[in-house]
Design a protein that fits this description.
By secondary structure, the chain is of the alpha+beta class. It contains four helices and four strands.
Length: 169
């Protein structure tokens, strides 16, 4: 007997229903705040340029526990001078069980950072205001779109790499 699309779809739904996902812990893994031109920077007109870099890494602690670390780096400049640089690495421990590996990887790259980002945003805002600067509210991030873009870039590089190796032979 062969598998029908309906049977495969049912198996996938059962896997999803049997999967478990929960947040175990959120913590600050690393934090940095620098104001290289203070106190002079406070005398300048406040017309900042904001640059935010964001990345995340996932690692397995054991079969069902995964650590995801979201790194947010914000550099704010006034003209040529750096007003401040803040970097926050927000970690989370997630229980992920009963999902296929590709789904676990996608969750670690999208769902987990979506949970961590509001905490990282709060830490960044707190550090900035405690540093004497106006409040900084970071815009939401679409981790699903970032994941898809990164996945497509990886696929393109693999195709280019295989095309180059074929031409060399």
């Amino acid at each position: 007997m062969t598998d029908t699309p309906e049977k495969n779809q049912t198996a996938t739904n059962i896997e999803k229903k049997n999967g478990q996902f929960s947040l175990q812990k959120i913590f600050v893994k690393d934090i940095s705040f620098e104001t290289p031109h203070s106190p002079e920077i406070f005398t300048e007109e406040w017309a900042p340029a904001v640059n935010m870099q964001i990345s995340n890494e996932a690692s397995s602690l054991n079969e069902d526990l995964h650590e995801v670390v979201l790194a947010v780096t914000v550099t704010v400049t006034l003209g040529e001078k750096t007003a401040y640089l803040v970097e926050v690495h927000m970690g989370g421990i997630f229980h992920i069980k009963g999902f296929p590996q590709n789904v676990v990887e996608r969750m670690a790259a999208t769902v987990c950072p979506n949970i961590l980002f509001p905490f990282a945003r709060e830490v960044v805002s707190d550090l900035v205001t405690r540093g004497g600067f106006p409040q900084l509210l970071l815009a939401p991030v679409n981790f699903e779109a970032l994941y898809e873009r990164q996945r497509k870039q990886s696929e393109r590089k693999e195709l280019e790499g295989s095309a180059e190796s074929e031409t060399k032979h």
